[in-house]
Amino acid sequence: MANNRFSARRLAVALLVFLMLGGGGWLLWHRGAMERPSTPGLAAYEARDWPAAEKAAKDWLRTHREDRDAQRLLARALIRQGRDQAGLTIQLRLPESMLTAEDYFLRGQAALGMGRKEHAILAWRQALGKDNDHVETLLALEQTFLRLDLLNEAARSAERLAQLPGWEARSALMLGRIRAEQLDPAGAAEALSAALARPDEWHGADVRDRVLRQFARLLLRAGKPARAREALGRLGKPAADDLEACWLLSRCDLQQGRATPASIASAARGYRDQHPIEPEASPFVGEAGCRECHEPIYRSQHHSRHARTFFRGDQFAKLELPARPVPDPDDRAVTHAFDRGAGRPTVQTRVGDRVFQTVVDYAFGSGDRGLTLVGHDDGGRPYEYRLSRYSDPPGWDVTSGQPRGTGQSELYQGMRITADAVRRCLVCHTTDARSIVTGKGPEAADAAIGCERCHGPAGNHLLALKAHAEDPAIARPRLASGAAVVKLCAQCHSPRDPELPMIPGSAEAVRFQGTTLTWSRCYTESHDALGCVTCHNPHRDAETREPRYEARCLDCHGAGRSKPQKSRSRKSVATRKPRAEAASCPVNPDSGCIGCHMPRVRIPMAHASFTDHDIRVHREGAAGSAATATAR
Description:
Layout: H1 2-35, H2 40-46, H3 50-61, H4 68-80, H5 84-91, H6 101-113, H7 117-130, H8 135-147, H9 151-161, H10 168-181, H11 185-196, H12 208-221, H13 225-233, H14 243-256, H15 262-274, H16 288-291, H17 295-302, E1 310-311, E2 326-328, E3 331-339, E4 346-351, E5 354-364, E6 370-376, E7 382-391, E8 394-398, E9 414-416, H18 419-429, H19 433-438, H20 452-455, H21 459-466, H22 482-493, H23 507-510, H24 513-516, H25 521-524, H26 546-557, H27 593-597, E10 600-603, E11 608-611, E12 617-618, E13 629-631
Antiparallel strand pairs: 1-5, 2-3, 3-4, 4-5, 5-6, 6-7, 7-8, 7-9, 10-11, 12-13
Helix pairs in contact: 2-3, 3-4, 4-5, 4-6, 5-6, 6-7, 7-8, 8-9, 9-10, 10-11, 11-12, 12-13, 12-14, 13-14, 14-15
């Protein structure tokens, strides 16, 4: 009994010591944990109440300044509220080991908000390294790649998202959009068909009726009018005020050889009149299909630089290639030897005892300013070749935008590019980029930029002519507003990256006339009348004589002229005169307009001079100045 009592006392003492040293400490820790921001703060964060999560984290950090969990919660809440710099500053102080996929996702969001796209993409890739199925990251990559015109990367993100339960329909929807941008109407329609089977799983990405219209367009582009009619039927019977649906239904009738009811035909004409520049939902016919009825215009356009800005296949025979090896401009010991070969040309780049071979797939440029080669190496990797041919001064030099004086032999072959980069080149140098890659479709035979690049696919047009329809079923830029025409031309005459900073008078800006013209008061005060075709005929090369353009200036700015009126006719907007108060020039009211207000600017990197289309007063007058404007 005594031993038992002694053992009981020892056990009681041990328990007391545990409670004082261990258990009491646990109680104190547990009490502290209940007060940590992880309870109220995380609950608010998970409920998407970012301000409450921020407050909880800040309240805790007032007495626990070094608590990293609270710091992470605060950083997350701040970035969620768009306070990117503050949130990122806190997050960057945390050890990388404690960051999760969500933290890297938010780091990317903050970087994107501050205009650092490359940093954002890197952070999102790190997020996927932590969690390959992180939904927000996959969505962010998909949308950012789509916005940056990196369509292959966007498609890969959408396809990865499609593997997650509940996201299949949303991914199919986005793949439909991406494939449409890739000029693949059949593939895009297939993806949208899968998406439309489950529109309730789109997570708010779009609305059903809009997608049905897009679906019908794509089916008509692919020459499948019966399925397009079925899709439009899911909208319900087109009402007279649903002009777009009536327009698409009339195109189904055209392709199926049916007569269109008068009410639908009238609504369809109304839609086309309101959208004169919209491409038809139609297959291509190729420039040869336009020649029979438009021989003079076809002949003029076919001899313009637009039609000579791309070479491949048999066209390579027209290329002027050096007969002897060309020394590299940065290292005379390196040479580039051109060989026409039996099919495609090749270039052998010799660096010491090593030879790098490039097979030329395409050549871009009319030769008026330059000619750049694009090809692939022995491993099939695409390259923009290091040397381009220039006309001013004539000869071969480092391709604009590629590094100079690198001393790295692997760069002497050229700059590695992506399939998306090749597609972007093809988009602006051919009628239809996809047809060039696949070799399918009549438009694949076009020399370079054909009629349907600006007028849209003409399959419906030929059917309309055959049916003697009142509506010619073709896009007609001459009936469009000045802004619409500029937007059409700017697809190729403006930078591909809409976020590229453009400074008036800079070399980067002067090259892109589709952007710089819109900065001019002549444009902004023209009441939507001034556009590219006001001065340029798109079916022939641009004039080089200044008096021809000055005559256009003096139409509005001539001395003693009254305020011109916009024509009421629906004829070409190219003949309309802007309605702005067009004062005559106080320096020289009769001539010299172009040299003073639109000077030629030399761009050494491009080996060329460009006319500055930002029409304005220059500080240094007509001396080819690239100075910024003093008046707008």
